[in-house]
Amino acid sequence: MRFRTLFFTLFVTHLAAAHPLEWLGLASWDVEGYAKDNPIGPTTGGEGGETVTVDNAADFKAAVTGNDPRIVLVIGEINLPSRLKIGANKSVIGFGKTAHITGSGLDVYHVSNVIIRNLKISFIKDNDCITIRNSTRVWVDHNEFESDISKGPDFYDGQVDVIRGSDWITVSWNYFHDHWKSSLVGNDAALRDEDFGKLHVTYHHNYWRNAGTRGPAGRFGHQHVYNNVYADFLYQAIHSRSYNQILVEGNVFRGNTREALSTYGLVIPEDSPNTCSCGDEELDGFANLGAKNDWGEAGVNITQVGNFTKAPYKFKLTPLSLVERVVKLGVGIGKI
Ligand SMILES: *[C@@H]1O[C@H](CO)[C@@H](O)[C@H](O)[C@H]1NC(C)=O
Ligand SMILES: *[C@@H]1O[C@H](CO)[C@@H](O)[C@H](O)[C@H]1NC(C)=O
Ligand SMILES: *[C@@H]1O[C@H](CO)[C@@H](O)[C@H](O)[C@H]1NC(C)=O
Ligand SMILES: *[C@@H]1O[C@H](CO)[C@@H](O)[C@H](O)[C@H]1NC(C)=O
C-alpha cells in the first residue's frame, strides 16, 4: 500500500509539472478532436476510479478487466504472454520513461471510454500493437511504437489499427517508427455496411519516422490529420480509399517519401504484396486540404475532393513553421 501511495504521489507531481510546450501555449496536452468532441461525450477513461499500479502481466490483466472506472499505472517492462483486452472506462498509463509492453499487444474490443498513454510498445509479432475494434471513445496519446522494416510488410502487423465500426478516436503525440504498416482505419473493402459513416479518427502531432505505408490508411470513415511530421515515410503515407473522407492540414514531410497523400483506390503492392503483385483495386477515397501542408519532395494524388472541409470541433493548430520542432520535442514517452 505504501508503495502504491508513493507512486501515486510521484505520478501526480509529475503530471503537475507541465511540459514546456504546453506552458508556452504551443500545444495542448489534453484530449482534443473526436475523442473529446463527439455525440456520446468526452473520453475520460478511468477518471474518478481507483488508481492501481502494476508491474507484471497477471496484475495488469486483473486491473484492466471489467467496466469499473480504473486508472492503471504501468511500471517498467511487462512481457505479455497473450493479447490483453482492456475493459471499458480505463486509463492505462505508463509511469515515467520506462513503461514498456513487449510480447503481445493490447485489444480494445467492444468497449467505450479507454485512454492509453505513455507506453512504449515494441516488436509485437503476428498482430497489432493496439487494435481498436467495435469500440468508441479511445484516446491513444504519447506512446512510442517500434519494430523494424527489414523483414518486409507482413512480418509485423499494424501499430494502431481502428476497425469494425469503431468511432470517436484520437491518436496524438505518438512516436511511430521503424515499422512498415502503421495505422489502418477500416480493414476490408467488404465491410462497407459495418464501417460506413463511422471510423471518425483525429490524428495530430504524431511523429512518423522510417515507415512503409498507412500513416494512416482509411476506408469508409472520416479522419482529420493535422500537424503530424513524416520523416522517410517511404512508400505512401496518407491514403484515403473506398469512399473514405480525409481532411489533411498543417502536416510536414521530410526526407524520402514517394507519396504523401493519395485518394487513388489502388492498394499499392508495397502495402499488400500477397494478393496480387500489381496491388488491389478499390474505389477511390476523398481528400480535402485545410491549412497549408509542407509536402517536401513527396507526391500528392487527389483524384476526388470530398466534403470534409472543416473539423467539427475546436482544436489548436500549430503554425506550420514550428510543427517539426514542436512535434519532435513533444512526442513519445516521458513527456506527460
Ligand atoms: C459491439 O460491441 C457492443 C458492446 O459495446 C456489443 O453489444 C455488440 O454485440 C458488438 N458488436 C459486434 C459486431 O461484435
Ligand atoms: C463504464 O462502462 C460502461 C460500458 O461502456 C458504461 O455503461 C458505464 O456507464 C461506465 N461507467 C462509468 C461509471 O463511467
Ligand atoms: C493517380 O491517380 C490516377 C487515377 O486518377 C492514376 O491513374 C495514377 O496512376 C495515380 N498516380 C500514382 C502515382 O499513383
Ligand atoms: C459527403 O460525401 C459522401 C460521399 O460522396 C456522401 O456519401 C455524403 O452524403 C456527403 N455528405 C454530405 C454532408 O454532403
TrEMBL record:
One Pfam family recorded for the sequence: Pectate_lyase_4
GO cellular component: extracellular region
Alphabetically ordered keywords of this record: Carbohydrate metabolism, Lyase, Polysaccharide degradation, Secreted, Signal
Gene3D superfamilies per record: Single-stranded right-handed beta-helix, Pectin lyase-like
Statement: the UniProt record of this protein carries the keyword Signal: yes
Biological processes annotated in GO: polysaccharide catabolic process
Secretion signal span: 1-18
Higher taxonomy: Eukaryota, Fungi, Dikarya, Ascomycota, Pezizomycotina
Listed name of the protein: Pectate lyase domain-containing protein
InterPro entries according to UniProt: Pec_lyase, Pectin_lyas_fold, Pectin_lyase_fold/virulence, PEL
Keyword Iron-sulfur: no
Superkingdom classification of source: Eukaryota
PANTHER family listed in its UniProt record: PECTATE LYASE 18-RELATED, PECTATE LYASE 21-RELATED
Molecular function via GO: pectate lyase activity
Subcellular location: Secreted
Similarity comment: family membership: Belongs to the polysaccharide lyase 1 family.
Pectate lyase domain sequence ranges: 47-259
